[in-house]
Design a protein that fits this description.
This protein is mostly beta strands and 67 residues long. The protein contains no helices and seven strands. The chain starts with a strand and ends with a strand.
Amino acid sequence: MKWQMIYIVRDNNRDAPSILNCVEAGCVLCFSGFVEIMVNGKTFMLDESKMFIYPPYAEIAVGIVGT
């Protein structure tokens, strides 16, 4: 199985969440600050040094990104 990594950076100009449709399984790793992600309708908050592994064909929305 292939894996993919999603890179998320803070964007002060974004009003709505960024929606990603992921065909392959992958992970979101928070290096610093925090990020809110919604995966298939469920919300998760990741802070520094946390990782979230998502399944194939997941719909991911990136909400709040903070420092």
